[in-house]
Specification:
The complex is a heterodimer of chains A (138) and B (140).
Chain A lengths: L1 E9 L2 E8 L2 E5 L13 H24 L2 E13 L6 E13 L2 H14 L1 H7 L4 E10 L2
Parallel strand pairs in A: 5-6
Antiparallel strand pairs in A: 1-2, 2-3, 4-5
Helix pairs in contact in A: 1-2
Chain B lengths: L1 E9 L2 E8 L2 E5 L14 H23 L3 E12 L9 E11 L3 H14 L1 H6 L4 E11 L2
Helix pairs in contact in B: 1-2
């Protein structure tokens, strides 16, 4: 799977485009009040982690025959000064699904272990997962 | 600096928000066509994070060197192998138009920015992120 992203910024204009294989999406990200993007790289890194978990829980649930109805993910990271890498990152999730509590809990823990962005980041830093919240739907 | 992001996805709805030091911004990200998740995936956002980090940081670093950056274009590319596998590598290139420095000064700024861009330094702790400054435009 080939992934591409591009940004172009000039004189209070900002264009952001992402692409997977032949599928292209343009994002509406306003320019910053000075120069650059109003949404920074750290925010997008956190969003990458949240979105990866969100999409992967549906994929992994499908493989296990579990119907996920809703997923909510919150990611938090701490950055130091300019030039310093992220100091820490953690995230938590809430999943509503039609299955037993332990089955949903197992799915959530498994998804954390196979989420591609989490695995990419974990080669160089700690990404903590939890607490998790399970909602059993009838 | 505390940075946060959240997504909430349910029944053909997708909400995405980010925050830095509790200042929240929402992003318009449509749900996926197949009704499960976000239309833009995590790896696309990861590549966009690298591009955006470089974009914002070149202005910051340019200011510190007395170089007035007028325009920046960044393209990031990555390859994912399979389900559950981490990214093997990433490469990106940039074009920068600036004034207040000659071609070598702008090129030095571009190479320096690659070394201090926070997302790049975060990723490089565990993987290779290659950079190529493909074009320098010296404005009068």
């Amino acid at each position: 799977m080939r992934i591409r992203a591009s940004v172009e910024n000039w004189d209070q204009h900002h264009a952001a485009v992402v692409q997977v294989n032949d599928s292209i999406h343009e994002l509406n990200i306003p320019p910053a009040s000075g120069r650059g993007s109003s949404i920074n790289g750290g925010q997008l890194l956190c969003l990458a982690v949240a979105t990866c978990y969100c999409n992967d829980i549906y994929r992994e649930a499908m493989r296990r025959g579990i119907e996920v109805l809703r997923v909510n993910v919150d990611v938090e990271a701490e950055f130091g000064g300019p030039g310093e890498p992220a100091k820490s990152m953690s995230y938590r999730a809430r999943v509503a699904a039609r299955a037993g509590e332990q089955t949903i809990r197992d799915l959530m823990i498994h998804t954390d272990e196979v989420a591609e962005i989490q695995n990419t980041l974990r080669r160089g830093m700690d990404v903590k997962f939890g607490p998790i919240e399970v909602i059993v739907e009838g | 600096m505390r940075v946060e992001a959240s997504v909430d996805n349910w029944n053909q709805h997708h909400a995405a928000a980010v925050a830095t030091n509790s200042i929240v911004r929402e992003l318009a990200v449509p749900p996926s066509n197949n009704d499960t998740g976000s239309s833009i995936n995590g790896s696309e956002f990861l590549c966009l994070a690298v591009a955006t980090s470089y974009c914002n940081d070149i202005y910051r670093e340019g200011r510190e060197r007395g170089i007035d950056v007028l325009r920046v274009n960044v393209e990031v590319q990555a390859e994912f192998n399979g389900t559950g596998e981490p990214l093997n590598g990433m490469s990106y290139r940039a074009r920068v138009a600036a004034k207040g420095g000659d071609e070598q000064a702008i090129r030095d700024l571009m190479l320096h920015t690659d070394q201090v861009a926070e997302i790049q330094t975060t990723l490089r702790r565990g993987m290779d992120v290659k950079f190529e400054p493909v074009e320098v435009i010296v404005e009068g």
